[in-house]
Amino acid sequence: MYPSLEGKVVLITGGATGLGKAMAERFGAEKAKVVINYFNEEQEVQGIIETIEKAGGIASAIQGDVTKEEDIKGIIAHTIKTFDSLDVMINNAGIENEVPSEELTLEDWNKVISTNLTGQFLGCREAIDYMLENKIKGSIINMSSVHQEIPWPHFVHYAASKGGVKLMTETLALEFAPHGIRVNCIAPGAIDTPINAEKFSDPELKKGVLELIPMGYIGKPEEIAACAVWLASKEASYVTGLTLYADGGMTQYPGFQAGKG
Fold it and tell me: Can you tell me the mean pLDDT for 21-25?
């Protein structure tokens, strides 16, 4: 547990399912004040709020589309109005879809880039602006992916967006370090979330994924949430510009494991 997170105001975009849900519930368990942004999962959000409140935290929810500048501004405004501050901003909302690159439409490209990269930029910009104005030494966490490092055929738009998140994070970390604002990102590997449920329900597909993970198992959302609370806490007070890979070793060239190659 991280006592420094008690009472801190944490905003999580895409917080209704998967990694966002796990992070919201973990910050709630740390007795933080959690704002959950969601797109169209209103019923799911109510259950998360109840879980957080049972754990001793406080939570609020707000609908919004992270690709829209006015929605991001509204999400930030709701957070400040509700809890009088913003200490931790987690840009988690993201999407993906598989398309051979030669068939990828501009519409599909723009949709993924707008959500995964532009949406995160808008969240960073608005949070940083508030933190600067109010002299808050806050923490910003951007959700990336191992595919900021590992090429992924048929997902060129997704890989490009996550590569952008990496350098955006590093650039903002360098720019705002003098103000005490830390900017880091988490790059998960294969995690057992709803977006991966269909793939992991197929034994052959799951076996193929497991062969890429030296630790030999699919990660749990709670393991990513553990990374987030550490990065947001005082325990990571000297950490900025970091990509924290939580991938079971997937980025460590698993094909060379056991002396292969």
Answer: 98
- Taking Cα atoms as reference points, which of 208, 219, 198, 222 lies closest to residue 254? 208
Q: 69, 118 in Cβ contact below 8 A?
A: no
Q: Using DSSP bridges, classify how beta strands 58-63 and 182-188 pair: parallel, antiparallel or unpaired.
A: unpaired
- Spatial separation of the C-alpha atoms in residues 25 and 254, rounded to whole Å: 32
- Summarised one tens digit per residue, pLDDT across range 84-106 is 999 999 999 999 999 999 999 99
Q: Are 231 and 184 in contact (CB under 8 A)?
A: yes
Six-digit token pair at 241?
């510009």
CB contact at 8 A, 190 and 250: yes
Q: Which amino acid is at 35?
A: V
Domains of the chain: 3-248 (3.40.50.720)
CA distance to 27, 32, 116, per residue, from 6 (Å): 9, 5, 29
The strand ranges marked E within the chain are: 9-12, 33-38, 58-63, 88-91, 139-143, 182-188, 243-246
CB-based burial, 193-207: b 16+ in 10 Å, e otherwise: beebeeebeeeeeee
* Interaxial angle between packed helices 156-176 and 106-113, expressed in degrees from 0 to 180 and rounded to the nearest 10: 30
Active site residues: 158
C-alpha span between 105 and 249 (Å, rounded) = 33
What pLDDT score does 259 carry?
A: 84
